[in-house]
């Protein structure tokens, strides 16, 4: 790569790195694993930068993150237990924090593709079409996976809680 292309890549990482790390964390649920996912995605992006930079590179990086997270989860094939407890009602703020922890635990327990759909659709606020493009599937599959994932989330933490936490997760 030329110096200009390197500078463009560095600028892209500086501008979007935090957002992409959040996607990686939500895709896998572990800080160390998220850093590894992002590093892998950025490495692959760098190797293809001359092709990727012409378009919007962020969807490419997201797709690499999600696909890598799914592949790693499949390889591990670890049985995850869905938490069934409810957060204590000590205070509203503490309940929100506890509910977010329960949500993250439940999100980690979802199958990798459902977790990817929830992350891309609700945290990254992508359309069904954009999510389908990143995941390499149809919009119908995105709808189906989102429906199944939200149903599991509602089962564990309740319908109103899911709506509130998803809409306020960035707070």
Give structural notes.
The chain is mostly helical and 171 residues long. It folds into two domains: 1-82, Rna Polymerase Sigma Factor, Chain: A; 85-171, Orthogonal Bundle (Arc Repressor Mutant, subunit A), CATH 1.10.10.10. 78% of the residues lie in helices and 0% in strands. The protein has nine helices and no strands. Helix 2 crosses helix 4. The N and C termini lie far apart (39 Å).
Radius of gyration: 17 Å
CATH class of the largest domain: Mainly Alpha
Order of helices and strands: HHHHHHHHH
**Which secondary-structure class do the elements indicate?**
mainly alpha
Point out poorly predicted stretches.
78-84
| CATH architecture identity of the largest domain | Orthogonal Bundle
Shape, principal axes of CA atoms: globular
Bin the strand percentage.
under 5%
Mean pLDDT: 81
Number of alpha- plus pi-helical segments: 9
State the separation between the terminal residues, measured CA to CA.
39 Å
CATH superfamily of the largest domain: Winged helix-like DNA-binding domain superfamily/Winged helix DNA-binding domain
Strand elements, count:
0
Can you summarize the main beta sheet?
A: none
| CATH T-level topology of the largest domain | Arc Repressor Mutant, subunit A
- Percent helix among the residues? over 70%
């Amino acid at each position: 790569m030329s110096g200009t292309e390197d500078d463009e890549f560095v600028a892209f990482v500086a501008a979007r790195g935090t957002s992409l790390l959040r996607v990686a964390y939500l895709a896998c649920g572990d800080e160390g694993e998220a850093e590894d996912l992002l590093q892998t995605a950025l490495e692959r992006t760098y190797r293809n930068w001359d092709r990727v930079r012409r378009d919007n590179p962020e969807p490419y990086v997201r797709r690499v993150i999600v696909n890598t997270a799914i592949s790693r989860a499949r390889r591990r094939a670890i049985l995850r237990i869905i938490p069934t407890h409810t957060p204590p009602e000590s205070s509203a703020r503490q309940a929100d924090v506890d509910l977010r922890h329960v949500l993250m635990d439940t999100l980690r327990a979802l199958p990798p593709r459902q977790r990817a759909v929830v992350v891309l659709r609700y945290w990254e606020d992508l359309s069904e079409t954009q999510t389908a493009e990143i995941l390499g599937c149809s919009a119908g599959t995105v709808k189906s996976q989102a429906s199944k994932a939200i149903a599991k989330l509602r089962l564990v933490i309740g319908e109103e809680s899911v709506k509130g936490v998803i809409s306020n997760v960035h707070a």
